[in-house]
């Protein structure tokens, strides 16, 4: 089984997960990780270890999306993966994201920010992924009361993502998230109409990219903001 085949299987599982079929994607990730572990018994190359780190990082995202009690399991998996990454000097960004984004789900925003900042040097020269990371840091700012900084940073994030020097296949995931963060920040500043426009744009991007999870998040924000507007009239 070659590396390219493993990468294609991971991409397939990601696509199925983003379309909302979490049960099927979980089984696919578990199958991929099982196969990689078998291969690692015979091949200890850094390339294969990096594929393992990527698969495990995506598997942590799987746990986060399923939510509930799985958040704690996701954090433990993420911490173990980051330890594995550092022991093998892989510098795989997903190893850090496995921890940072789970901490976001758990509400540990200041701790998550520390890990997110470690990602920026790893994405040097990759504007879209730098932008995506900035959007997550902006959300940390927002949730810890640093609204002005959050607003400025998320604008930078959107601009960086639209420049898009990274892989285009994740463009919709990154941009729809950044737009949604911008919407939340604007709403906190009582700019509800502007917030609604950004939420609608997030939904448009998510639906174009067929990202069911983000589409549902955007719809929830739109519904909330529309109720806010009706209440203010």
UniProtKB/TrEMBL annotation:
Source organism phylogeny: Bacteria, Candidatus Woeseibacteriota
Organism: Candidatus Woesebacteria bacterium GW2011_GWA1_39_8
Name the record gives this protein: MalT-like TPR region domain-containing protein
InterPro entries the UniProt entry points to: TPR-like_helical_dom_sf (IPR011990)
């Amino acid at each position: 089984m070659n590396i390219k085949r493993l990468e294609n299987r991971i991409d397939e599982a990601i696509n199925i997960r983003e379309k909302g079929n979490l049960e099927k994607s979980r089984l696919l990730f578990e199958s991929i990780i099982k196969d990689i572990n078998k291969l690692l018994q015979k091949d200890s190359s850094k390339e294969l270890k990096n594929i393992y780190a990527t698969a495990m990082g995506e598997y942590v995202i799987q746990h986060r999306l399923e939510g509930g009690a799985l958040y704690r399991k996701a954090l433990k998996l993420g911490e173990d993966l980051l330890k594995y990454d550092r022991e093998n000097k892989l510098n795989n960004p997903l190893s850090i994201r496995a921890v940072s984004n789970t901490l976001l789900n758990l509400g540990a925003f200041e701790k998550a920010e520390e890990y997110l900042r470690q990602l920026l040097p790893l994405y040097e020269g990759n504007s879209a992924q730098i932008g995506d990371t900035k959007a997550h840091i902006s959300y940390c700012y927002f949730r810890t009361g640093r609204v002005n900084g959050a607003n400025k940073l998320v604008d930078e994030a959107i601009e960086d993502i639209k420049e898009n020097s990274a892989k285009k296949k994740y463009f919709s995931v990154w941009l729809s998230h950044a737009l949604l963060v911008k919407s939340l920040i604007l709403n906190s500043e009582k700019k509800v109409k502007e917030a609604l426009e950004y939420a609608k744009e997030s939904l448009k991007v998510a639906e174009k990219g067929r990202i069911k999870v983000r589409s549902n998040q955007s719809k929830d924000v739109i519904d909330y903001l529309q109720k806010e507007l009706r209440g203010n009239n």
